[in-house]
Design brief:
By secondary structure, the chain is of the alpha+beta class. The chain has two domains: 90 residues, no CATH class; 37 residues. The strands form two sheets. The chain has a two-stranded antiparallel sheet. Strands 3-4 form a two-stranded antiparallel sheet. Strand 3 and strand 4 form a beta hairpin. Helix 2 runs antiparallel to helix 4. The radius of gyration is 24 Å and the shape is elongated. The N and C termini lie far apart (66 Å). The model has no long low-confidence stretch (mean pLDDT 94). It binds zinc ion (ZN).
Length: 130
């Protein structure tokens, strides 16, 4: 294992983007088996090649930057998914509206009849059914 340690010195290694690429490769591979697709059977190699290229790359700054761009997008997607999950949980007790003026999302309690909703951001008043 000493030769491997020596070989990996100064190389980037594995990061979060690499793990996602490995997962993507496995997913494509499984899909190719399920769908009996020859195109997918070849395509699964692309993410794997990217993983190995990134892992053995000596341009650490560039690989780090790629991972940061990926993480920013990944966190954005995670936040949107969490927001959707939260809304589904709230569905029973709250209703969501968008302010007609500034598009701010407004959450109001359900079953209160017709209510005046005042946007906290721009103070626009809307009459809506809750
Ligand atoms: Zn508003």
């Amino acid at each position: 294992m000493n030769w491997f340690k020596k070989f990996m010195t100064g190389r980037y290694g594995v990061d979060q983007l690499s793990w996602i690429l490995i997962g993507l490769s496995i997913l494509i591979s499984l899909l190719s088996r399920l769908m009996d697709s020859k195109i997918l059977a070849v395509l699964y190699i692309i993410p794997l090649v990217m993983v190995f290229y990134r892992m053995f790359s000596k341009n650490i700054a560039k690989r780090y930057q790629e991972n940061m761009v990926f993480l920013n997008k990944w966190n954005l997607i995670k936040r949107k998914i969490n927001k959707i999950i939260q809304r589904i949980k709230d569905l029973k007790h709250y209703k969501y509206y968008k302010c007609s003026n500034c598009k701010q999302t407004l959450r109001v309690p359900r079953r209160k009849g017709k209510i005046a909703i005042t946007c906290p951001k721009c103070k626009t008043v809307m009459i809506k059914k809750s």
